[in-house]
């Protein structure tokens, strides 16, 4: 349900603990192990060879926590992929800005924070590694605040929520003096501070293609956020090129995220991030839309280096 979806990205300087934090969140939500079991069962009842194609390890992931579904989209780790960072950030409604409690903000922290602020996102600041000997969480918060100011954050952005974590030990807290043994406070802050994705659930379906990948079993796959309407597997959609050309095709597979894996889903709603197979000439920046009322989504082209 749209109201219960939260789309976020975790942005950080390398080594500040992004991977460890995601693992801690998955572990806390208990989805990892459980979903592995589900995937196994699904595979048992299907043609194993055919199904292998959809158990690709996704770059994005999804964590179910209580009634909420939190989609965490992956941001490229290298500053050179500037354009891609921006593109990915257009899918989310907030970012967790992860900063090492001893090292403080680093060049890449600045880079990704600037992109997020420029896009109008209101970050949640996560001070990680508070268990490190010599950690100076309060000082680092001040440094982060100064960085926000330097990057011309607006008042709303400056009023960022702060969560203190030890991703390694698996706990999060809202102030340094409190005690905590779990990641629960981080989830609470995400669920209450990040707004649900916007978009008209009753309007015709529209998805902006943000990423393209290729899979040996199912061909070219397109990932993006559903801006309006809903979609069912097997449905016929219109593919709208950036020059306005429209062609029609059928969804051969609709994939959602369960923990770290992509799994087939029967349908998806506004605000969710999904992957669609069946369109062999689909490209980044194009729109997949309702076949009856195809309308393109605006796409801001981003200059980026060609990676060969
Ligand atoms: P990434 O590059 O941002 O994905 O960082 P990783 O998650 O790979 O973490 C980098 C290193 O920092 C690893 O050696 C982690 O074990 C360590 N690390 C991550 N979180 C914490 C933490 O909360 N406390 C401490 N002491 N170390 C951590």
UniProtKB/TrEMBL annotation:
One of its GO terms (molecular function) is rRNA binding. Coiled coil: none annotated. Monomer. A 50S ribosomal subunit assembly protein with GTPase activity, required for 50S subunit assembly at low temperatures, may also play a role in translation. Binds GTP and analogs. Binds the 70S ribosome between the 30S and 50S subunits, in a similar position as ribosome-bound EF-G; it contacts a number of ribosomal proteins, both rRNAs and the A-site tRNA. This is Large ribosomal subunit assembly factor BipA. One of its GO terms (biological process) is ribosomal large subunit assembly. Keywords: Cytoplasm, GTP-binding, Hydrolase, Nucleotide-binding, Ribosome biogenesis, RNA-binding, rRNA-binding, tRNA-binding. It is found in: Cytoplasm. GTP binds at residues 15-20, 128-131. Its EC number is 3.6.5.-. GO terms for cellular component: cytosol; ribonucleoprotein complex. It comes from Geoanaerobacter pelophilus. Residues 3-198 form the Tr-type G domain. It is an enzyme of class 3 (hydrolase). Belongs to the TRAFAC class translation factor GTPase superfamily. Classic translation factor GTPase family. BipA subfamily. It catalyses: GTP + H2O = GDP + phosphate + H(+).
């Amino acid at each position: 349900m749209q109201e219960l979806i939260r789309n976020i990205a975790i942005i950080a300087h390398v080594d500040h603990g992004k991977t460890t934090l995601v693992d801690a969140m998955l572990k806390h939500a208990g989805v990892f192990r459980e979903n592995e079991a589900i995937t196994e069962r699904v595979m048992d009842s299907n043609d194993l060879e055919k199904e292998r194609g959809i158990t690709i390890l996704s770059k994005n992931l999804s964590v179910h926590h209580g009634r909420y579904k939190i989609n965490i989209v992956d941001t490229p780790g290298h500053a050179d992929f500037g354009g891609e960072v921006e593109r990915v950030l257009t899918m989310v409604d907030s970012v967790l800005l992860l900063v090492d409690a001893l090292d403080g903000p680093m060049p890449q922290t600045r880079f990704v924070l600037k992109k997020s602020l420029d896009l109008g996102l209101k970050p949640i600041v996560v001070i990680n590694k508070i268990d490190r000997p010599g950690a100076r969480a309060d000082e680092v918060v001040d440094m982060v605040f100064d960085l926000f100011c330097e990057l011309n954050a607006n008042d709303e952005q400056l009023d960022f929520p702060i969560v203190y974590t030890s991703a390694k030990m698996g706990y999060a807290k809202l102030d340094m003096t409190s005690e905590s043994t779990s990641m629960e406070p981080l989830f609470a802050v995400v669920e209450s501070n990040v707004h649900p994705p916007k978009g008209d659930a009753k309007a015709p379906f529209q998805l902006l293609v943000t990423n393209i990948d290729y899979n040996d079993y199912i061909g070219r796959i397109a990932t993006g956020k559903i801006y309006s309407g809903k979609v069912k597997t097997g449905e016929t959609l219109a593919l709208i090129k950036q020059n306005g050309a429209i062609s029609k095709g059928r969804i051969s597979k609709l994939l959602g995220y369960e923990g770290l894996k992509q799994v087939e889903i029967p349908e998806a709603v506004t605000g969710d991030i999904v992957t669609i197979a069946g369109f062999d000439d689909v490209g980044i920046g194009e729109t997949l839309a309702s076949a009856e009322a195809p309308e393109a989504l605006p796409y801001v082209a981003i200059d980026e280096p060609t990676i060969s």
